[in-house]
Structure formats: structure tokens, C-alpha cells
Amino acid sequence: MLILLPPSETKTRPHAPDAPTLELSSMAFPELTESRREMIAAAGRTARGDVAMEKLKIPASQPELRERMAHLENEPVAAPLEVYSGVLFDALGQPSVSDGCRLLAASALFGIVDCHADAIPAYRLSAGSEVERLGKVAAWWKPRLKHIAEAIEESGEIVIDCRSGAYRSMMPLKGAQVLEVSPVAVREGKRRVISHDAKRYRGLVARALCEATSPAETADDVLEILMNGLGDSLGFELSSGKARSTLTVVDDWERH
Hints:
globular; alpha/beta; 10 helices; two-stranded antiparallel sheet
């Protein structure tokens, strides 16, 4: 089973005095090393440019992020689940992952990272960013991640896709074994798509699946694990399509 997460916009900078710095050669997916090096260089050039704050979407209240992006090779690193923060990662926590389950996160800087094997800095770059010489980040990464997407699709393993739309476009996945997590809320009998809280539900789904005694191998397995672990508070539905399937997370207030 593979669980795909989005990164977080906010990140926690490692503060350990002896924290190591970035070692691209030790990261998972070594075939991406040169692409990662190229993106880091482009992000650094952008950070040193006149419109860095705008292109990197750095808030005026956090100008220090610009300096850190300009010198990423000197930034301290830690495990992705310690660096990524925010609603989804608060709900996910630090789950123990059963054998046969992989937890990966999309990354505008690294393409994709292994949440338990890699160490990353607290960077400021998103799929919608534009960097010097390379242009739009998501579009630049798409052909470079194509072979990884193909390998995932050919593996036949069940994929729980918790990514947001921008990161799905960076590495599109197809196939009946790909379940896109889509939270909805029911209010007065009507459904509406959830925006901000969607991150929390995706974090809860990822945590429940990570900590299952046995990893899911089919969509029905996923449904059973979630109903057993979260069924008291949330509903779950599966719908199948030719290109991909949807796992709908239903928060029905009238049910509580």
C-alpha cells in the first residue's frame, strides 16, 4: 500500500544544534538527484532576485525565509514528518508504519520524498511557484516524475492519494487501484466539498491506514480499515472510474 501526501505550506525548521545538513545522495529515488540539484539551484537564484518575495510567495512578515532559500545547502534537515506542519500533519502525527506500507509526500523542491527515509530542510516553495530559468514548478517536474508514476501504476499496489490538485497535476496517476481521497460535509441533507478541513480528514485517513495491523491490498480492504478505525465519526464511500477511483470521506453532522 502506498499513501501519497501533499507537503505543507508551513514548515518547522529543525533546531537541534547538531542537526545535519542536506545530503541529496542519501535520499530515496536517487534517479531524481540531478533534477533536485537543478531545482535547488533555481530556487536559490530566485531567492536572491529582486522579486523573490513574490515568486516564492514569502509573507512580508517572514523575510528570513528568503535568506534560508538562498542557502538551502546550509540549512538543517530532519525527517519530513518533523518538518511538515499544519492541519493535515497534526492529524497524521508520527504514525508507526506497518510492513508493506509506504508513506510518500509530494514536494516542489524534491519532486517526491520518503517520509521515513529522507531528511529535508524547512523550505519555501510550492507547486504553483515560478523559479528562475525553470518556470512553473509543477510543469517542470511533471516529465521528470513520469517514470515514477508509471512504476507505481505498474506495481498494482493500492494507492491512497491524499494530494491536493496542484500536486496531483505534478505527477498524475491513473488506474483503478488509485483512490483519490475526497472529503465532503453533509449539512441539512446537502453535500458540499470541504476546503480547509479536508486536510484534517486526509491526515486522519492516512494515520488509520498507516497503523493498520496489515496493509490494505484492495479498495475494499481500505474501506474496512477506515470503517473499523474511524467509522464512529465519519462515513466512507467508494466509487470506481476507468482512470481512477474516489474514496469519499463523509462528515455528516446530523449523524452525530
